[in-house]
Amino acid sequence: MASVKLTNVKKIYGKNTLAVDNFNLDIADKEFIVFVGPSGCGKSTTLRMIAGLEDISGGTVEIDGVVVNDLQPRDRDIAMVFQNYALYPHLTVFENMAFSLRLKKVPQDEVYKKVTEAAEILGITEYLTRKPRALSGGQRQRVAIGRAMVRDSKVFLMDEPLSNLDAKLRNQMRAEIILLRKKIDTTFIYVTHDQTEAMTLGDRIVIMKDGIIQQVGTPTEVFDMPCNLFVAEFIGAPKMNTFKTELVFQGGKHYVTPYGAKIEVNGDKALALKEKGIESREIILGVRPEHFVLADPKDPGAIKCEILVNEMMGSELHLHVLADGEKLIVRIPTVSLTDDQRRSLVQGTTIYVTFEGKVMHFFDEETQTNLLV
Amino acid sequence: MRNNKTNKQSLLGARASRNISNTIIYIVLVAITILWLFPFLGIVLESFEVGTKAMDSNLWPIKFGFDNYIRLFTETKFLKWFGNTAFMGVCTALLQTFFILSMSYTLSRLRFKGRKGLMNMMLILGMFPGFLTLILIKKVFHDLGLTEAMAPVGLIIVYCASSGMGYYVSKGFFDTISKSLDEAARVDGATRWQVFYKVIMPLSKPIIIYSILMGFMAPWGDFMMAKYLINANPDGMNVAVMMQTWLSKGLLNDNYTMFCAAAVMVAVPVTAVFLALQKYYVEGVTGGAVKG
Question: Which CATH number fits domain A4-233: 3.40.640.10, 2.40.50.140, 3.40.50.300, 3.30.1330.30?
Fold first, then answer.
């Protein structure tokens, strides 16, 4: 259990390949923080710098108030779970989990107690005598987590631990990690490229791109108020629809005019626009697929579009539509549709959709930042 | 129907021509095998021949017995020379394996300035024949007192000194072991050295055995460097130099069958070790070859 503080951390590979730049973050004791971003954004590199597996090119990393830049991984009191499990193939599950304790020369009784306790929690007691090659992917991942658990270390690092598992097992393990977190109750730093994992696991999420932090916030904050277009499109699945349009300030009210429709901005967003003194201008508008609804053609806010693809997901339909030549994704819960409606939503059909005035996001065309942040 | 018949005929024709070519290939292979085995068989048979000491015209001994072996061990210092060579073999195998594995692991895992240059330099240096340094080594070792009776120690140093340059096969092997194992062990609290011997070594049995085998076999066949350092001192001799001495002194006619017995004795340990470890040897060579 410890806090972790990164100040102006920088990583340069070779002479001038900047992998991480100006990384500043305070991670509180017992916090579960998730680094998320596309491949090559520097999230794993940052984690490896905290672990001591990569040299730090600039700035400082502190664990529990102690600068650890020059400490070896074994002196940092951290535990780490790797993407490919990294189990020792020549050792049994028991010995894999006991490896760190044996190095510390912990008495035999205590080793036995700690390993069996961890195995009990993870449900792998019956595999303790097996070698890793005789285990399935999910079981191996549990052993890898168990190996990290027995160490009672200050910080628990996880580098894409679920990426090698199939979709079903990934969902199951994700839920188990949430439960595990309650049992272990230490500081977690978790790296993933999967926004669902980030949203469901993290107390706070750090969204990264090209080695730079884009936004740090709770899942709700980054979902409801993305600070720029990148975060808006990265968080949420399917991704947010964004299109160029005009924001019109008329008679004390704000309107947006996508594809010839006219929709009034209301709720908190209207207040915020007024507070910021924003008047008529070109913007990039962002609307999440789930915020679209089917509309009456006569509604002034109705956007005419043609269905390209209809993806039936079970509880909802994902409609890929073309509005004025641009592609949009519309997500409609099947429960809200009549059988006739469901049958009519096929490729080539023209439909009308609209969205509420309080769920839109406004971005600056040039800087791509959120106008309300 | 007609089509079917044609197909059948052409299939049968293909089988017949395959049979003929296989027969020819096997005849050639058998002939080559006989040619290759003939000298070995001759030496083994001669070594058991009783009643004559010189080379004779009959390949199959008139009378079988162990006389040559008994003479070899009682009338000469063969046991001493055999022991010298075995001592060199064991020491070289152990030291050389240690040097090669440490070197290859370092080159596989650590990134330091000049690593590529060093690897290329060693590869190029390794292409020069070792005896280029013969005279210099003889001079230096003579001054250090590592020739004549002390030659086995000198020779061990010669065999091991540049052994790190033979890093490429084992480095290729280490490259195939995931680096995250090293990282996991380092996070778990291991030093670099503990990672090497607690995690990497147990996974590297094939390459360890391959290195031991190579190291053990080298001294048995070495003649040139050994001859220079030993300089005909009977206490420092290895088997190759000793046997060559019989030839050069014109003693062969008196000792031919004993020479054969000595040759068989030399082949025994090398063959035994090789057969026992053959499986790993192949794994070691191909294991390194998968990824360079």
Answer: 3.40.50.300
The CATH code of the domain that includes B113 is 1.10.3720.10
Residue for token digits 């580098």? Answer: A159
Q: Which two tokens stand for residue A309?
A: 């693809």
Find the helix or strand (DSSP H, E) in which A67 lies.
strand A66-67
In this prediction, residue A169 carries a pLDDT of 87
The pLDDT, as a whole number, for residue B289 is: 40
- Which pair of structure tokens corresponds to residue B250? 């014109």
Are B185 and A99 in contact by the 8 Å Cβ rule? The answer is yes
**What pLDDT does residue A1 have?**
63
Beta-strand pair A32-36/A204-209: parallel
- What are the per-10-residue average pLDDT scores of chain A (373 residues)? 91 90 95 94 95 94 94 93 91 95 94 94 92 90 92 92 88 88 89 93 95 96 95 93 93 91 91 91 94 92 94 92 93 90 90 91 94 89
- Is it the case that residue B121 has pLDDT exceeding 60? yes
Tell me how far CA of residue A72 lies from CA of A12, A25, A50, A67, A68, in angstroms: 19, 22, 11, 12, 8
**Nearest CA among A192, A88, A72, A102 for reference residue A131:** A88
| Planar angle of CA B284, B287, B289, nearest 5 degrees | 110
Say whether A74 and B189 touch across the interface (CB within 8 A): yes
Asked if this assembly's ipTM is beyond 0.90, the reply is no
Residue B178 contacts A where some CB pair is shorter than 8 Å: yes
Beta-carbon separation of A90 and B202 below 8 A: yes
Contacts of B184 in chain A (CB under 8 A): 80, 82, 86-88, 147
Across the interface, do A86 and B178 touch by the CB < 8 Å criterion? Answer: yes
Please give the CATH number for the structural domain made up of A241-363. Answer: 2.40.50.100
Token pair listed for A223: 């979902």
In the 8-state DSSP scheme, what is residue A167? H
- Give the residue carrying structure tokens 């100040």: A7
CB contact under 8 A, A86 and B202: no
- Evaluate if residue B264 carries a pLDDT over 80: yes
Q: Give Cα A334 to chain centroid, integer Å.
A: 27
Q: Where are the domains of chain A?
A: 4-233, 241-363
The mean per-residue pLDDT over the stretch B107-122 comes to: 91
Question: Are the CB atoms for B171 and B107 separated by under 8 Å?
Answer: yes
* Nearest residue in chain A measured CA to CA from B183: A53
Quote the CA–CA distance of A241 and A327 in Å, as a whole number: 9
* DSSP class of A239: P
Q: Which residues contact A320 (CB under 8 A, 6 or more apart)?
A: A307, A308, A309, A310, A311, A327, A328, A329
Smallest CA–CA distance from B178 into chain A, residue = A86
pLDDT, residue A271, reads 92
> Quick check: B189 and A53 CB within 8 A?
no
User: Which chain A residues have a beta carbon less than 8 Å from that of B199?
Assistant: 88
Strand order from edge to edge, sheet including A155-159: A78-81, A155-159, A187-192, A32-36, A204-209, A212-217
Closest to B267 in 3D by CA, of B43, B35, B33, B36: B43
Task: State residue B286's pLDDT score.
Answer: 56
